[in-house]
From TrEMBL:
Membrane topology listed for this record: Single-pass type II membrane protein
GO biological process: methylation
Protein's cellular compartments: Golgi apparatus membrane; Membrane
UniProt KW keywords: Glycoprotein, Golgi apparatus, Membrane, Methyltransferase, Signal-anchor, Transferase, Transmembrane, Transmembrane helix
Annotated Gene3D superfamilies: Vaccinia Virus protein VP39
Protein known as: Methyltransferase
GO cellular component: endosome; Golgi membrane; trans-Golgi network
Entry keyword annotation includes Cell wall biogenesis/degradation: no
GO molecular function: methyltransferase activity
First-tier enzyme category under EC: transferase
InterPro entries: Put_SAM_MeTrfase, SAM-dependent_MTases_sf
Amino acid sequence: MSLAANDVHQNQIQFALERGIPAYLGVLGTKRLPYPSRSFELAHCSRFRIDWLQRKGILLLELDRVLRPGGYFAYSSPEAYAQDEEDLRIWRAMSALVERMCWKIAAKRNQTVIWVKPLTNDCSMQREPGTYPPMCKSDDDPDAVWGVPMEACITPYSSLSMLEEINIGSGHALSIQSEIRRARGSGLAPWPARLTTHPRLADLGYFDEMFVKDMEVWQRRVENYWNLLGQHIESDTVRNLMDMKGNLGSFAAALNNKNVRVMNVVPEDGPKTLKIIYESGLIGTVHNWYVKNFFSTCPRIYDLLHAWTVFSDIERKDCSIVDLLIEMDRILRRKGFIIVHDKRSIVELIKKYFGALPRESVATAESQLDSEQDEDDVVFIIQKKMWLTSEGLKESE
């Protein structure tokens, strides 16, 4: 996931997104990043001039929250080289802070240093009483991210086997991983087996049977979607996809054999499944579609938006379907697609707004693919037209 500030780096993010690289506009400020704890194996910051020491190092502690045990922070900056007194001062202060956080240097060369996060909390627990930064309070939820202020504390690990939260790259870490595996059993599977293997499902409130069934349902649904899209999809034109209601990530997992990237969006007030999505090796974020919130991205970026029961959720909350359609239009690329999978009444309501939006219907089909599904469900696929201000609506040649 590429992250850049939306005040000075919008163009860079747009370049990343148009290359098919997942990216998100955001800032390391006062609120937590929109990712659950232990989501990433590696964080990278190159010459970004972030003041990592501000507010008692709270930004480094936020990185600690989102890194897995054994995860890495690759930092490339003049401070790591320490050629003058100011750089040397910053380097000494950062080194002292990460040492108290129990991070170790895995490698250092020229202007780049790579720190590694410890596999357990043993080091943190053995520090002198009163050492800063403290451990986070036991009632702090490290996975709560929507509008939650950052905390200047070390996020404790759970009591689960550390290997279940590790996906280490190579080198010295592999021997550590092998030792833990022999002692405690297997953990996260390598990619792409991670898509279907989750040792911690039960701890997150789900069970293998539920997960397998969900995967099977979405395999069938995605196959149906692609059959309906058929000739409308040109070769290599659909790259950036968004699942607006990511759930367990099964829509994205079903597309693993296609050359696409899927941004899984988990509703802020829905089931907290984003951790499962990241453990699958997929990416995503939290968002609230129910109010007039812009999604943190540039205009005209996504090639396909998948809206499964999203509009029904909007209607139940008595919020504006029109507002959501306008936001979807903003982030959808010209000639991009929207897949609406919802009740027939919702689909008919959406069709009423076609006269004001540059879109056309591609396909409509009954959607009776599994016994769990409402008999009234319909799949409705829309394509955005090419719209030119000088000529009005116009089909692209």
